[in-house]
Design a protein that fits this description.
By secondary structure, this protein is of the alpha+beta class. It is 16% helix and 35% strand. It has helices at residues 15-22, 67-75, 88-93, 104-108, 167-170; strands spanning 26-27, 29-34, 40-45, 48-52, 57-63, 77-82, 112-113, 122-123, 128-140, 143-155, 160-161, 164-165, 174-175, 181-182. The strands form 4 sheets. A 7-stranded antiparallel sheet has the order 3-2-6-9-10-5-4. Strands 1-13-14 form a 3-stranded antiparallel sheet, with no helix packed on it. Belongs to the flavoredoxin family.
Length: 201
């Protein structure tokens, strides 16, 4: 196998481009917030994951100081809306660099509705939303890592089977490298081995 080595100390190397092409697929947090002045904001963030199981905490990274981050710091809350395939173009369009005084949902015609526990509205058409209170932030170079404690899950009953969300009904989008997006994947189910003797041969 022949390999090309990229040294991160080399100024000609772009680690961001390599990371976003190698660490794939990345789930999308379509985050809604409101500013201290009450202006809504809606933007996709693909550096998103689970940080803790108990208490339930999710995390995302803001690359640069964007409106989403400023609003969360000001109001201490946000909502993560599941980015679903039918809304692909709306989600992509909401990534444009709107001015802070502009409400992306309003401009793009995205219907919002009241959340259960926060003042921040959720995307009405999203199959699931996670209402979060800010837990903490950590500055990392040019980025800020944001952790939010999940206060309430709001899930469309149509995506639940025996109380559990089903991926074929959520149809989640993901980000890949460059301008590429991933659609809901082909799913393979495997029982996790408990003991070495359980390992399939």
């Amino acid at each position: 196998m022949s390999r090309t080595v990229f040294d991160c100390a080399d100024p000609e190397v772009d680690p961001y481009r390599l990371m976003t092409s190698l660490i794939v697929p990345r789930p999308i947090a379509w985050i809604s917030t409101i500013s201290a002045d009450g202006v809504g904001n809606l933007a996709p963030h693909s550096f998103f994951s689970v940080a803790c199981a108990s208490p339930p905490i999710v995390c995302f990274t803001s690359v640069g100081r964007k409106d989403t981050l400023a609003n969360i710091i000001a109001t201490q809350e946000f909502v993560v809306n599941v980015a679903s395939e039918p809304m692909l173009h709306l989600i992509n369009n909401s990534a444009a660099s709107f001015e802070p005084v502009v409400d992306e949902a309003e401009v793009l015609g995205i219907e919002m509705e009241h959340s259960e526990t926060t003042k921040v509205p959720r995307v009405a058409a999203s199959p699931a939303s996670l209402e979060c209170a800010l837990h903490s932030t950590q500055e990392l170079g040019d980025s800020v890592h944001v952790l939010g404690r999940v206060l309430r899950f709001s899930i469309d009953a149509d995506v639940l089977v025996a109380g559990r969300p089903q991926i074929d009904r959520l149809r989640p989008l993901s980000r890949l490298g460059g301008n590429e997006w991933g659609l809901a994947p082909v799913v393979v189910a495997l029982e996790r081995p408990i003991e070495p003797r359980d390992i399939a041969r």
